[in-house]
């Protein structure tokens, strides 16, 4: 039975690298995969899965109106050769809408194709992204891709947004084209960063 996998990790945890690796493993055996990436948010421009380690892969762009179930089905009917898709891979899955996640469950349950969605869990204000929330609810298997805090040696579970070198904890969830920078951090360093910038409460 196919399953829906949600593999989450914070920034720089190697999620894109993992996608490229999984795709390579299938394709080496002549097994076709589909890679999707949300185009309304992509950091490399719409159609590339880019890993910071320096590999790139073409991806099918997903916009707010894309029906992922219909899209996968259309590739099934047009694909030549073995006429089979062995796996569907999703990059930056946090940016998907609820309907996208429900469509992915249809791909798994009705087409019997495994889906692996990779993405962040919480945003820089520690709110779940819409895609992440719905993946946590719907996924059969949930797995953490671990990385280390930027500032210490604990496991990173959060992300800090920096603007001009200063940590910020307000603003839009998705900031495109700004001069923002994100760092993976542990909870302790996250809290520490904001203690340092917040003004001391006035004492009477
Ligand atoms: Zn830390």
From TrEMBL:
It catalyses: thymidine + ATP = dTMP + ADP + H(+). Pfam families: TK. ATP binds at residues 9-16, 91-94. It is found in: Cytoplasm. Its main location: cytoplasm. SUPFAM superfamilies: Glucocorticoid receptor-like (DNA-binding domain) (SSF57716), P-loop containing nucleoside triphosphate hydrolases (SSF52540). Its EC number is 2.7.1.21. One of its GO terms (molecular function) is thymidine kinase activity. Belongs to the thymidine kinase family. This is Thymidine kinase. It comes from Paenibacillus lignilyticus.
